[in-house]
Amino acid sequence: MNISSSPAPVREVTLLAPCYNEEAVLPSYYERVRALAAAHPDRSFHFLFVNDGSTDGTAKILDDLAARDPRVQVIHLAANRGHQIALTAGLDAAVGDLVVILDADLQDPPEVVSTMIEKADEGFDVIHAQRRQRTGETWFKLFTAAIFYRMMKYLATRAWIADCGDFRALSRRAVDALRRYREPHRFMRGLALELGFRQCIITYDRAARAAGETKYPLRKMVALALDAALGFSTVPIRAIIWLSLLLWCVSLPYLGWALYGKLVLHRTVQGWTSIVMLIVFFAGVQLFCLGVIGLYVARIFEQGQRRPLYTVMETRNLPPPSPGCHV
User: Fold this and answer.
1) Sign, CA torsion 207/213/214/218
2) CA dist., res. 207 & res. 201, Å (int)
3) Spatial CA neighbour of 171 closest among 33, 314, 13, 38
4) How far apart are CA 310 and CA 294, in angstroms?
5) Mean pLDDT for the chain?
6) Cβ(61)–Cβ(162) under 8 Å?
7) What is the H or E stretch that residue 166 is in?
8) What single-letter DSSP state applies at residue 187?
9) CA–CA distance, 186 with 191 (Å, rounded to integer)
10) What is the share, in percent, of the chain residues with pLDDT greater than 70?
11) Of 89, 225, 85, 94, whose CA–CA distance to 147 is shortest?
12) Of 55, 120, 129, 186, which shows the fewest CB atoms inside 10 Å?
């Protein structure tokens, strides 16, 4: 893509990392991002952490880092709100010219940020990091991820980037635009595509998790996939219409055959078992369709409640929150 204007170079970079029970990896992460900052002496860095209601020693480690290094900024959420909401809280507080989202588990190498900064200097507003390899992942995780990205390729209303998670960089104007999206069921990688602006893709090799356990078990992966499918596609609703038409067309010949046997041949249609099977089948299809519609209606209901996405309990090296601060 040709960039016609001459963008201002990035002077201030915020590295945003949501944290939930990451005490085992935080010291290593901090050393890696500190080395990254030292490699760019002409730019200022902020290390922004969002403590998403951790129950281990994460909060104490973050507070200790903030006390030693003023570049470390910490947001302590009052309760665990999930990875996507924690990212939202961080984006709301980030002040850098460029905000880079990366996980604290070091699967997303901080060194890749240097390439992102170069792309931002060229004028790109959204820089997506696409995985070439995924070291340390189980076959089940790789298999389900492949299904998810291929599914979204056909369901999403916009072009989808396969094998691209939340590791990306956003310019200041992209962050400001993203802050306006306040739906409770959030899928940040989809919202980033929705923004528009100047976007590009860089590739990298994802490393194995440095320590600790994954924060995306099967249950959360399924929930994230539902948020993606229902939040960025109306295909399920349209599929119900086509499915109902298909079943109606299939049932017409069966109805005609039953009427012919009753009115012309003067005999009742044999096959009680087949009738029961058809009743059960159609009842199951109807319940499934009602369930899909219900999921969309439930999201409308929760959106209409306008509840805050998160509540900030405390901050470090950031303006203190007002009593009961929530957004």
Assistant:
1) positive
2) 18
3) 13
4) 25
5) 77
6) no
7) strand 164-171
8) -
9) 8
10) 61
11) 225
12) 55
0.70 exceeded by pTM: no
Those residues with Cβ within 8 angstroms of residue 226's Cβ, 6 or more apart along the chain or in another chain: 295
At residue 66, what is the residue type? A
Q: Are 3 and 197 in contact (CB under 8 A)?
A: no
Contact of 51 with 183, CB cutoff 8 Å:
no
CA distance 29 to 80: 21
Angle subtended at Cα 91 by Cα 87 and Cα 93, rounded to the nearest 5 degrees = 120
Task: Map tokens 């984006």 to a residue.
Answer: 91
Tell which residue, 101, 103, 104, has the closest CA to residue 28.
Answer: 104
User: What would the two tokens of residue 43 be?
Assistant: 């730019």
Cβ atoms 106, 28 nearer than 8 A = yes
Distance CA 303, CA 300 (A): 5
Tokens of 314: 């405390």
Cβ atoms within 10 Å, residue 22 = 26
- Which two tokens mark 66? 């903030």
Q: Return d(Cα 90, Cα 103) in angstroms, integer.
A: 12
Q: Are 22 and 52 in contact (CB under 8 A)?
A: no
d(CA 86, CA 188): 11
Please state the separation of Cα 41 from the chain's center in Å.
32
